[in-house]
Amino acid sequence: MTENQVIQETELKQKDLMNKFIHVIENHELSHSYLFNGEEGVGKLSLALFITMRMFCKNVTDDSMPCGKCDECRRIATQQHPDVVIIKPEGLSIKVDQIRYLKSEFSKSGLEGNKKFFIIQDAEKMTTGAANSLLKFIEEPGANIVSFLLTTNRNLILPTIISRTQVVDLESLSEDTFNKELEKVGVAPSQFKLLGKLTNRISTVKEWQEEDWIKNSTSVVGHWFDYLTKRDGDAFVIIQSNLMPLMTDNNKKQSLINMLLSIFEDVLNAKYIGNDDFCFPKQAANIKLLASQLSESQLVQIIETILNCNSKMAVNVSFQNILEATTLRILKILE
């Protein structure tokens, strides 16, 4: 990120916390260690970099913002400042040697001043050895050393580490902000509503895009629904031939169930709200048709049938069997 991108992203995603930390810094109340807990994509890193920029900036603005122009701001944003160390997983984990390196760097005096900051991304991925080594360090960090631990799951952090940090829970992105993030990675506006129901992770959306998974799966679910609308048994056939090849991991299986729920929620909305803001806009005609044909009782039965997929998955029933049984049950309800 550039220095201006850090400021813009923090203001967009975590403006309230940004203002709170400006107040904390102005009152000289910044603690020595923070744990930023929040979903992926909510701005944990940009917030940590923003605070660091504000502490190092040579030209703080009249409204107490980092200038975003000086050499200090630039090097922090681009992760090139010698007194700001950023650690992230090497492979699947953060290893003890990385924490030892961090400690050795911080045993030296600041190269350009008396402040030293460090940021640990994906802190929940520290090995046990790394976590224990870090614990010893943050117990007595030394003067003018500030640490930020960033995590998507505080429950995976050692309780002893949590007890020595100030935990800050970052709020999820608003629908509008998430849609702006989707737009940045090239998602069509027609997919915003569905993706908002499937995930809150931009990285997951990117993976699905690279594999064409969201495009292929929504297309197949759309065809499955169209067959159901016609009470056509090919809705059963499509499970093995078209849907199962797309189900390569449990996350995708869960997302598929949410897709099935979403398309029948579209039917529910068409029946009782009458709007055209559908998760599956290409199926709009059949969504409205089915909404006019089904009773409230039938719709509730179908949605309950799809919801029951979750309990069946929990006891390791074959996913293909779950989908086939669900399809047959829905066809029976539609008779």
TrEMBL record:
UniProt entry tagged with the keyword Transferase: yes
A cellular-component GO term for this protein: DNA polymerase III complex
Signal peptide location: none
Any single biological process term in GO: DNA-templated DNA replication
EC number: 2.7.7.7
Domain DNA polymerase III delta subunit C-terminal stretches: 243-313
Reactions catalysed according to its record: DNA(n) + a 2'-deoxyribonucleoside 5'-triphosphate = DNA(n+1) + diphosphate
GO MF annotation, one: 3'-5' exonuclease activity
The entry's keywords: DNA replication, DNA-directed DNA polymerase, Nucleotidyltransferase, Transferase
A family per Pfam: DNApol3-delta_C
InterPro entries (alphabetical): DNA_pol_HolB (IPR004622), DNA_pol_III_delta_C (IPR015199), DNA_Rep/Repair_Clamp_Loader (IPR050238), P-loop_NTPase (IPR027417)
Keyword Lipid biosynthesis: no
Protein name in the entry: DNA polymerase III subunit delta'
